[in-house]
Amino acid sequence: DVQLQASGGGLMQPGGSLRLSCTASGFIFSNYYMSWYRQRPGKEIQWISGINAGGGTTTYADTVKGRFTISRDNAKNTLYLQMNSLKPDDTAVYYCAKTTEIHTRGPGTLVTVSS
């Protein structure tokens, strides 16, 4: 079974930085495109970033482009999301998913951006 566990969330002040991690198991991680999603309070879940299997191609939603960086370590079966210049609107539960299969997401990690 696909298992994905996001971690690294917390309470941050606006302008701060945070790095999220997602550990994967139950599939050959290095073979798959991976995504980050988030769900802001009262909003629908939203795709925010993706990375191809080799890590050489990344894409971002306009809302995070230029501030967030997705990366992966295939040797460690781990996906990352470096978040810089955090804004209160980034407050959300963050999830990782295999390809864009949102149903594969595991427990998310809460990021709260507030002064």
Structure commentary:
- The protein is mostly beta strands and 115 residues long.
- It contains no helices and ten strands.
- The strands form two sheets. It has a six-stranded mixed beta sheet, with no helix packed on it. It has a four-stranded antiparallel beta sheet with strand order 1-3-8-7, with no helix packed on it.
- The relative contact order is 0.32.
- Helix content is 0%, strand content 47%.
- Strand 5 (46-51) and strand 6 (58-60) form a beta hairpin.
Q: What is the string of SSEs from the N terminus onward?
A: EEEEEEEEEE
Number of H/I helices: 0
User: What's the overall geometry?
Assistant: globular
Measured as a percent range, the helix fraction is under 10%
The span between the termini is 40 Å
Radius of gyration: 13 Å
Strand order of the largest sheet: 2-10-9-4-5-6
How many beta strands in the DSSP annotation?
10
Largest sheet: 6 strands, mixed
| Average pLDDT level | 96
Which regions contain 5 or more consecutive residues with pLDDT less than 50?
none
Structural class: mainly beta
Strand content range: over 45%
